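User: I'm writing a short methods note and want a consistent example. For GGDEF-domain containing protein, I'll paste the sequence; you return only the structure tokens, no commentary, since I'll be parsing the reply automatically.
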Amino acid sequence: MAPEQVAYEALVEFLYRAPIGLLQARPDGEVTMINPMSAQLLMPLAPTGDLGNLFDVLAPVAPTLRGLAAAHTTPGSVVCDGLRLPLPASDGRALQTLALSITRLDAGTLMCSLSDVSHTVREEQHRLARQLHDVGRIDALTALPNRAVVRERIAQALAAQADPSGVQLAVLFVNADRFNQINLAHGTAVGDALLRQMAQRLGATLRPGDAVGRAVPPASTAARLGGDEFVVVLEGLRGADDVQRVAARLVQTLSQPYAIDGLVLHLGVSVGISLGGSVPGADADSVLQDAGIAMREAKRAGGARHAVFDPAMKVRATYRGLVETELRQALDRGELFVVYQPIVWLGDHDGAGVGVEALVRWQHPLRGMVPPPAFIEIAEQTGLIGALGGFVLETACRQFMAWRQTLGPLAPQGLSVNLSRAQLCEPHLVVQVQRTLEGSGMPPGALQLEVTESLAAQDDAVRQRLQALKALGLTLALDDFGTGYSSLSSLHQLPVDLVKIDRSFVSQLETSAHHRALVKATVEVAQSLGMGTVAEGIETPGQARVLQALQCQKGQGYWFGRPMPAAALAEWLAARQGAGTTTAVTPPVAATPAVTPPA
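Assistant:
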């Protein structure tokens, strides 16, 4: 047999036995050569067994193929390469997937190959499903696991803990202090970068290696729930002391300064700890909830610390939730009202110039008078403080102008209103104050806004907002001086006009030389900086006399007058004028009764 004949028969044998489909066709699709594998792969599309024209057979799954082939007339051109052809089963599902490649050999010949890629397609689908599953379990910003993973890990650990020989579980709920303020002051890009750095530090803290690292059990998971909330799941703990050490390290590490885009940012973190399984029947959600409750307790205690959950915390949280709901209703129902406490001159004066501080009160229809600390903190935490603060400011400004019309020269000469941390962080605060002044007709110079020293000394963004408020023409007072972060040496750095000396110093003036020296130094430094001084919480004539001797300008407290409704204050002012009081060493009028809501 000639070599050419041998080669030809070998080629035919190869085509016959090839594990892929091979066929030749004319440009119109007429099949001129087809191997058994091609026939086997195409037969589901040709129920009558007619495989005479490739384009006719493939029309149900590739209707544009005929035109595509006609467009490729150049020898060697590729008509299609690995075109996926799903072959439907009777129920419509993909039974099989073929890959078709067609190349034009010459003017009259198309060379085609077919292969079954069903397994490859299924693998790709499974891989994509796994990727989508992973995407649904990973936080896009920090690349940490998300809430779904945390819930799974907690549920698995709780199930294992049901066995006495199983793991011991703790969940740590981590929340950044002051993150919202940083986000508002510097923008979300800086906030996102801060969260990424926090996530990196969180992961590094959980790596074993040092004395604290060895307290971290091998099975630990750090995750981001959302916003500035993170969770750490610790499994296989040796004891509660290990949890305390890990929590303390988290607070320390995450509270170190952050360098971002030329900024140096400072924040603390609050950590709540829930020991899984300490409550019978606990599930993943309840353990997470308990850790969150403990975190909020740590934050309420001042932040930058950790707290371990106990059932009493949940009782308090339930009560706060009830108060929040009722406070929202109280704003709409008119249950809130404003009272006014006199601020008087302590030294010799012409009798004019009494000021007042506006304070909010809540007359609950069932529980009676609700103490301000019981609802103001909740208003700050739930976003109600803006509406509450706006109500107090507008009510007080309008009342101040009403006094001017009805009382004439007896009317208060100044009005003080407190600003909370949450209010000062609201971006529209300055506009709100300006509109209130304009709407009430109140002179800006008669309004004084009070901020705590810890807030005034906080950061540059807060100081800028305080300066914007001062630019309206009002004055700023530093409230509760002596209880926060600032000192006498840094007083000149704060954008305030007046210092209010905290009642904790005033209460011991008659018995403590140390407290007298502190108040004396505060008054002298304030005077040297051109700032006024007001002493809070004066309750005895002896305290008033000491403050007068120390040259403190003004004072307020129960010795002069309790916070009272507007009508009662008008009577107090009239009685004071009738008594001819020009100093405040002795009370100008009889002691005012406890506050009752206005009729």
